[in-house]
Specification:
Structural class of chain B: mainly alpha
Strand order of the largest sheet of chain A: 2-1-3
Oligomer: heterodimer
Distance between the termini of chain B: 42 Å
Largest sheet of chain A: 3 strands, antiparallel
Number of strands of chain B: 0
Strand content of chain A: 25-35%
CATH superfamily of chain B: Ferritin, core subunit, four-helix bundle
Structural class of chain A: alpha+beta
Shape of chain A: globular
Radius of gyration of chain A: 12 Å
CATH topology of chain B: Ferritin
Number of strands of chain A: 3
Helix content of chain A: 10-25%
Number of domains of chain A: 1
Order of helices and strands of chain B: HHHHHHHHH
Order of helices and strands of chain A: EEHE
Number of helices of chain B: 9
Low-confidence stretches of chain A: none
Helix content of chain B: 55-70%
Number of domains of chain B: 1
Largest sheet of chain B: none
Mean pLDDT of chain A: 88
Distance between the termini of chain A: 10 Å
């Protein structure tokens, strides 16, 4: 899926747990990113899940050291 | 509930014959539609344009089959229906699913139309049952609607993607979405259906068939505008010989024999546990 935006997926399994990064998806838009994230990363009954466009993430560490996780 | 002064029903007792029958038919229609949606999403676990869409189709199939099972449990408890017989023993013509699902889904644009129009139509009916005075049903609706949110995201996302690509696939999407809307219009039924009116009067549903169709057509129009696809508005449906049990007219024969064969577990009866 070259050329499609990458969305980072975050979720928490319990209300008192921090959100953690669980993976990423390639999707044409926000709706598809939500559907793909929910159906791909279904190993837990998440109480919260959200996606963030990777391009919206502001790096603090030097550029080029973002994690790759399959993308 | 749709009206705080309306009576709540724990069972069919006191509901009245017309409303009880109308609800029976509506649950058949929803269960059959979800069974067929589950089948087609399952078929489209392979052949999708993206691996993520394959996983999504498989997941959507699972949730539709789960919803069918939930509705079958209600049919068993309140009408004494045998869930196995509902699938195994009925002739295809007795299935009350939206007719768009009667034939194999021929390509990805048609699958997207099924997702964005047919699946959404069933969800709109569920939403009209969210405040139902029939408590056993109301208790099951929240779970189904929660899961349907993901179906709607998938349908909308792909509708925009295919539509904005243009070309032949956008044209196929336009055609399929128009056919899907027309099929839904028949399935929702005529405005003067006594069963539908009884459900509305008893507070079982909060919207009439015509209101549901208008709302769905609005959803589709909005999405089609975003996608740049000119989906035709549904023309008034012809209800010649419309049967409230199957939600079909005399010209509709039910799902293809091949599809019904694959829905049934009868061919594998040998392996059923406990028999």
């Amino acid at each position: 899926m070259n050329g499609l935006p990458v969305y980072e997926v975050f979720a928490r399994a319990k209300h008192d747990e921090p959100l953690k990064h669980v993976g990423s998806v390639n999707a044409a838009d926000d709706d598809l990113a939500k559907a793909y994230a929910w159906t791909l990363y279904d190993e837990e009954s998440w109480v919260e899940m959200c996606v963030v466009r990777r391009e919206a993430v502001i790096p603090i560490t030097p550029h080029g050291r973002l994690p790759v996780w399959g993308n | 509930m749709s009206d705080a002064t309306m009576r709540e029903f724990e069972s069919l007792e006191g509901l009245g014959e017309a409303a009880a029958e109308g609800l029976h038919h509506l649950l058949w229609a929803l269960a059959d539609t979800k069974l067929l949606l589950g089948y087609h999403y399952g078929e489209w676990t392979f052949g999708t344009p993206a691996l993520e869409a394959a996983v999504a189709s498989c997941s959507l199939s699972q949730s539709e089959l789960g919803h069918a099972r939930l509705l079958h449990a209600l049919l068993k408890k309140h009408w004494g229906e045998d869930p196995e017989a509902l699938v195994e023993q009925r002739a295809p013509a007795a299935f009350a699913n939206i007719a768009f699902l009667d034939a194999p889904i021929a390509g990805w644009p048609a699958l997207v139309a099924m997702n964005a129009v047919v699946d959404l139509a069933a969800t709109r009916v569920l939403a009209a049952l969210e405040g139902s005075t029939f408590k056993p049903l109301r208790m099951s609706i929240g779970k189904m609607l929660d899961e349907e949110r993901h179906h709607a995201h998938h349908g909308r996302g792909w509708f925009r993607t295919v539509g904005r690509q243009g070309g032949d696939d956008a044209e196929r999407l336009r055609t399929a979405a128009g056919q899907a809307l027309a099929a839904v219009a028949v399935w929702l039924g005529p405005g003067d259906d006594p069963g539908g009116r009884a459900l509305l009067n008893a507070g079982i549903v909060s919207q009439s068939a015509l209101d549901l169709l208008a709302a769905l057509a609005g959803d589709v129009r909005h999405l089609a505008d975003e996608a740049g696809v000119a989906v035709p508005s549904p023309t008034p449906a012809a209800f010649n010989g419309w049967d409230p049990r199957t939600r079909r007219t005399t010209s509709s024969r039910g799902p293809a024999e091949d599809i019904v064969f694959h829905l049934r577990g009868g061919a594998n009866a040998l392996f059923k546990l406990g028999e």
